[in-house]
What we know:
- The protein has 16 helices and three strands.
- It is mainly α.
- A three-stranded antiparallel β-sheet has the order 1-3-2.
- Helix 1 packs parallel to helix 11 (about 190-195).
- The longest helix is centred in the first third of the chain and has 19 residues, at about 10-25.
- The radius of gyration is 22 Å and the shape is globular.
- The termini are far apart.
Amino acid sequence: MTSTPVTTTATTAAAETASAADAAAGAADGTALHRPVTDWFDEHARDLPWRRPEAGAWGVMVSEFMLQQTPVSRVLPVYEQWLARWPRPADLASEAPGEAVRAWGRLGYPRRALRLHAAASAIQERHGGDVPREHGQLLALPGVGEYTAAAVASFAYGQRHAVLDTNVRRVFARAVAGRQFPPNATTAAERKLARQLLPEDEELAARWAAATMELGALLCTARAPECGRCPIAAQCAWRQAGSPAHAGPPRRTQTYAGTDRQVRGKLLAVLREAVSPVPQQALDAVWDEPVQRARALDGLVSDGLVEPLGGGRYRLPLT
C-alpha cells in the first residue's frame, strides 16, 4: 500500500510563492519597464548627497550602512557630519571604534557603526585607503553583505548588479509578480527575477537599480502606493489583477517602546555624552527594571559596543 505524502500548509504556500515568482520571472518583459522607470527617475530623483559625484565610493558606502532600516530624513544630518569628520576611510580607521559609535548618535542598530569602522580599517589595510571596485573584494569587507556590495558596485562604480532592497522587492512583487507585498525574507525566486529584469547595458543597469529603489521609496510605498503617478501603472501585474490584498504570512512589524532595544539606546546615550568612564550608578538611573537593564548592558558588552572597566565603570570601546 502506497502512503500519500503529507505536505504542510506552510510548505505548500512556500512552493506556490516560489512557482509564482519563477513564472513571473519567465514572463517578465524587462525591456518594457526599463525606459519608463529610468526616465521617471531622471526627472523625479531626490537630490541626495550620496548621489552627487563628489560623494565618491566612500560616501556611497557610508550611506548604505546608515540607510539600513533607517529613513533618509534621519540619516541626512548624521551622514553630513560623518563625512565632514571622516571624508576618507583612513580618517575613520585612525580613530577608536567608540568614536564611530558616538557619532552614530540615535540612528539605531549601532552595531552598524562598529561594522563600518571595521570596513574602513580593512579598506585602509588591504586596499590602500580606496574603496575597492570589485564586487568580490567589497563582499570580503567586514560588515558588507550581498546587498551592500552590489549597491556600492552599482551606485559608486556604475556596474551591472541586481540591487535588491525592500523597496525594490516591493516594486517587483507588484509590477511583475502581481502581489501586494514580497515575502518576509528575500527568496531565491526573487533574486532570479531581479537578475532577469536587469538590463544588459551596464550603465542602464546601474540607473535601473537606483530608479527602482527610488520608485519604491516615493511612489510604490508599503502603506499608500501612488499608482496614479507611477510610470508603469498600466503594466503593473498587481493593478491588472485588481490590486488584491496580501494573502501571505502576516508581515513583520517592529516595536520599540519597552524593548531591550530601547534600554540599550538609553544606556548608549549616557555613554555617548560622557567624556570619561561612566559609573554603574549613572547607567542604573536610566531604566528602573534591573533584570532587563542588566540584560541590555550585557548585550552591549557582548556586541563590543561597550567596554567594561574596573570598579563598575563603562566606556565606549577604544579598540
